[in-house]
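Quick one, T. Sequence first:
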Amino acid sequence: MDLEKISQTGIEHPIKVQEEPNYVIQYVKLQLAPTMLSDMDEIPVMKFGDITLEIELQDLSPEFQEIAKKELRETPEVVKESVTKLRELLQEETDLLVPFDNDAWLIRFLRPCKFYPESARNLIKQYYSFKVKHADMYDGLVPSRETNIFKANILTVLPNRDQLGRRILVIELGKKWDHGKVSLDEVFKGCVLFLELAMLEPQSQVAGAVVIFDMDGLSLAQTTKFTPSFAKRILDWLQDSVPLRVKNIHIVNQPYIFKMVFALFKPFLKEKLKNRIIFHGTDRKSLHKYMDPSVLPKSYAGTIVAPRVTGEQWLQLLLKCDKEYEAINSYGYNRK
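Structure tokens:
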């Protein structure tokens, strides 16, 4: 772990260490991070040799401050003005309970809207309206209640970022997916838990995330589990209700029958996201046009020397963050 980097967040030396096969979980003390909504004062970090897997709460580096300025209009003056205006707009929403006194939380929604307060207010309303509409997915949504999806090891985030500093989410819905044991609703909830975590990270708020859908081994029986209602829900979420910049969705190793699945999504795709979905099949050179081999594992003809973090290993970190997810769930419409 880079102690110089950690010192920027107020994190101190590890206070507890738990040994596990092939990795070590460290629990480090930190000052209350401004992006978090709970009063967690301890956060887990997982080390695989020289590789560190952690929730990155430190402030933006000078490099990403410059990116935020160029791409998102983020300057101290714009931030101050936009935060003030967004807070005023939210105070008018009397049926919506949000932490509008938390500047970091407001910035979380302003960044994907390029610091236009009205757009950020609308995104916040859509974010919470979606949760009300799909309360069966969101009520009580914490990692400790969703262990099945992570133990199935079809959903994980790589420990490294891509060459542009973006988080990399890998979803394997082919031969690894036992559709009799893991439902698509569980896959959706796992994705929500991951993206809520990414939303806490200032760098992820600026750089965004990319998704790799690995459909290797997709069967006809699996395709029957996809429905128009599921397709609409996930696209409504991605396109209108997630305050995170999803920069690309890469479809790899897809068999011919995947066309049946994609046909369900097409009617709900907006042009912006449609242009960000790229089909690669088994053509790794095609994937490498967008993702440098240096950030990809061997399974995608990459060269990175890093362990493949399993879903269950990620779960060990997420379980320690239940308190933060409970705080996230405490806001929204119709709350007392």
